[in-house]
Amino acid sequence: MGVAINGAIEQGLLFAFLALGVYFTFRILNFPDMTADGSFALGGALAAKLIIGGWNPVTATLAAMVVGAAAGAFTGLLTTKGKINGLLAGILTMNALYSINLRIMEKANLPLLREDTFYTMIQSLHIPGIGVISGEAIIFLVIVLLVKLIMDWFLHTDLGLDIRATGDNSKMIRSFGANTDRTTIIGLALSNAMIAMSGAFIAQYQGFADVGMGIGMIVIGLASVIVGEVLFGSRSIFRASLAVIGGSIVYRLVIAVALRAGFNPSDLKIITALIVIIALTLPNVAKGIWKKSSKAAKGGKLDA
Amino acid sequence: MLNIRQVRKVFNAGTVNEKIALQEINLTMAPGDFITVIGSNGAGKSTLMNIISGGYLPDQGTIEIDGKNVTKLAEHQRAAFIGRVFQDPMAGTAPNMTIEENLAIAYARGHRRKLALGVNAKKRKIFQEQLALLDQGLENRLKTKVGFLSGGQRQALSLLMATFTQPKILLLDEHTAALDPKRAQLIVDLTVKIVEKNKLTTLMVTHNMEQALTMGNRLLMMHEGRIILDLPQEKKQQMTTKDLLQAFEQARGGEAFAEDRFILA
């Protein structure tokens, strides 16, 4: 179990970039961005291809981020300039990316055996771990927190305030001179850069990129966001982005426990869906029960 | 300051639902003019506001603000010149952002948004001074999310956000209509105070005839997309709400609908 927890924490930290990206679109920009499945695999595919081609893993990961940002910007252009419904715009990009990812990889699966990856670089540093937290996890944590802090800072700049207001009240922010088309495109680009970064890291971590590696990533990201918010709160941006990282780790731990309990890896998608459904409905159900019990306490006389 | 020439706007042109919202409107506002606009539902008051703000583009005609032709500019491009307060207290502020963050957005009006912190010590001091003018105790609640404020407080904040960067034109779209009488009076008083202090060129739509007569220096009455009455200060001062109602019925060709009486009373 110790090894499983170790791995779950490492994965949780690498998937936290995905969760931060999903948090950015779904919560900050209030945009249901379906690009994520495509941009995650895009990040993995491009990083793997470049590493095999002899690129430094760090520059390969950065390149994956840039291309992820372009994918997000494309969805943004479809929905703002092309006036395509936001959900559909994301789905269209996601679909198109599947073909693009296959073009990049030239086959469905790219193994990174004996390649120098970001992960092997960190492993070679032999950083001592602390308890269940491995030395590698410590490095991952540092990078995640760095990205989180940059995101927190960015969302408090003038441009960041505009992006947040675009998600909060787009009519209002237009009346103050912000171009909401521009803020939407920038927001989607930044979000998908983080998601592609997550894909690039995961490919290097697991030692291969697969064309199907992005399937279900939106739901996993959402699960992390929702679980994190429920468990750790979301009063401020600083708190919420920390909660999202925590949510990503908790999600991986739950999955590790589920696998331990005898579920098949193929069952993970339905487990993830159930986690999201429970986390979303539980507050309402709990409210209903509380209402009923308070009614009962008052003798059941109140109707409303 | 504002010059509207032959502006026409038709919705759903060529369909059974065709609606001529504005018919060849001409309107000139001198700097410092405070015009109140009344008219029944569907008269074109809100369309006029949206045509000025850039929410709608006119089918024909030109709009100039301070000598600059803005007819083809989008809403966010015109925002540098125009401050606006909406009827819905929820519309003018971002509820999940704090008071100081909302003010920072308003403060950036007319500037290019940069990658510098939106709220800093210097700006915070300005915000506190400005909020103190509202007399709502908001200057001590800079980090409160706007969603926690009452409708009246949000509208007061909206008014401040729309005005403290001294826009060329201030548009008030029935901005007291959604408030209870006490709060509405408070916002009216604040409006007069702020407009006078900053000498803002203001266009205010209202359903309240009393407000239309007591506030501002000029009164417009609209009906079916036209300006049917334009009262300068001297005439306006002598009028009562009853006179105004009569003038309205006359201008409409004598047809007096109890419905309109109710709306305008």
UniProtKB/TrEMBL annotation, chain A:
Keyword Cytoplasm listed: no
Keyword terms of this UniProt record: Cell membrane, Membrane, Transmembrane, Transmembrane helix
InterPro entries: ABC_transp_permease (IPR001851)
Location of the protein in the cell: Cell membrane
Predominant location: membrane
One Gene Ontology cellular component annotation held by this UniProt entry: plasma membrane
Residue ranges of coiled coil: none
Topology with respect to the bilayer: Multi-pass membrane protein
A Gene Ontology molecular function term of the record: transmembrane transporter activity
Transmembrane regions listed in the UniProt entry: 12-30, 50-74, 86-105, 125-147, 184-205, 211-233, 240-262, 268-286
PANTHER family: ABC TRANSPORTER PERMEASE PROTEIN YPHD-RELATED-RELATED (PTHR32196), BRANCHED-CHAIN AMINO ACID TRANSPORT SYSTEM, PERMEASE PROTEIN (PTHR32196:SF69)
Protein name in the entry: ABC transport system permease protein
Organism encoding this protein: Brevibacillus fulvus
UniProtKB/TrEMBL annotation, chain B:
Stretch forming the signal peptide: none
UniProt keyword Cell cycle, yes or no: no
Primary localization: membrane
ABC transporter domain segment(s): 2-249
Pfam family, one: ABC_tran
UniProt keyword annotations, A-Z: ATP-binding, Cell membrane, Membrane, Nucleotide-binding, Transport
SMART domains cross-referenced by the UniProt entry: AAA
Keyword Translocase: no
Subcellular location: Cell membrane
Membrane-protein topology: Peripheral membrane protein
Matching PROSITE patterns: ABC_TRANSPORTER_1, ABC_TRANSPORTER_2
Domain of life per record: Bacteria
Molecular function as annotated in GO: ATP binding; ATP hydrolysis activity
GO CC term (a single one): plasma membrane
PANTHER family listed in its UniProt record: NITRATE ABC TRANSPORTER ATP-BINDING PROTEIN (PTHR42788:SF7), TAURINE IMPORT ATP-BINDING PROTEIN-RELATED (PTHR42788)
Protein name, UniProt field: ABC transport system ATP-binding protein
